[in-house]
Prior knowledge:
Layout: E1 23-27, H1 32-43, E2 48-52, H2 56-67, E3 77-80, H3 88-99, E4 107-110, H4 125-151, E5 160-165, H5 182-202, E6 207-214, H6 220-228, H7 232-237, H8 247-258, E7 269-272, H9 276-280
Parallel strand pairs: 1-2, 1-4, 2-3, 4-5, 5-6, 6-7
Helix pairs in contact: 1-8, 3-4, 4-5
Protein name: Gluconate 5-dehydrogenase
Organism: Coniosporium apollinis
Family: Belongs to the short-chain dehydrogenases/reductases (SDR) family.
Amino acid sequence: MSTAKADVELKDFSNIFRLDGKVAVVTGGSRGLGLHAASGLLQAGCAKVFITSRKAAACQEACDALNALPNKAPDAIAIPVPADSSKLSEIERLVAEVSKHTDHVDILFANAGATWGEKFDTHPDSAFAKVMDLNVKSVFLTIQKFAPLLQARATAEDPSRVLVTGSVAGQGIGTLGPQSTPGYSASKAAVLHLMRNLAIELAPRHILCNGLAPGFFPSKMANGLMEMTGGVEKLAKETPNGRLGRPEDIAATVVFLCSRAAGHVNGETIRLDGGKLLDRARL
Length: 283
């Protein structure tokens, strides 16, 4: 009987969650989930993070805060590029502006979005169309126009990443009643299915696509609805793990999906709601 030991090859996992030198673009990045994600990307090693939203002052304020982070790389920088993601011409201008600073993009977080609450009988056509256009069509166009930059340095071993922001409202039933959000719920279901289609379309180009489906996170867009549905304390108690989303929940998930750790994850949606959607589905 042989006593020879089998060869064991151990891999170096010390940088498995690092993003050193990567270039990222975050739409809707001046506040809320987008800003938390941008903070995580910089702190994980990204060299450049482009922050875009409609308001120039908000973009600059966000970048000032990001550039003051004490634990980012010394030369890492957040760069403001204001643009209105609801307009194709503005998306094309955004790509052109980013191209002035870099010949490639490694990470695109298509996070810009909007909502509208109104009871069913009076829900306006214009609001429904605005939400669907920004949350779905504009996401598609943003990914389409950034595709050349995403492909520029992507390889099978080091693919570029596209992330989209969905919602638990796109996986279950959204808000009903006086502040009904049918357009928002439909748009978030649509954008997550769009992501699954693009995951197959773009994988041969070495671009991986995945989605996030957050539950309630305190933010400017969500705070009003949270108050109307019982407030932070009530909503936290109704969540299986007893709390709402925190900045690190978004930042860590985004970093994971953009890192070497998620190099074989494609077409998936990570739900961030503490298990609440599952709990609501119990018989």
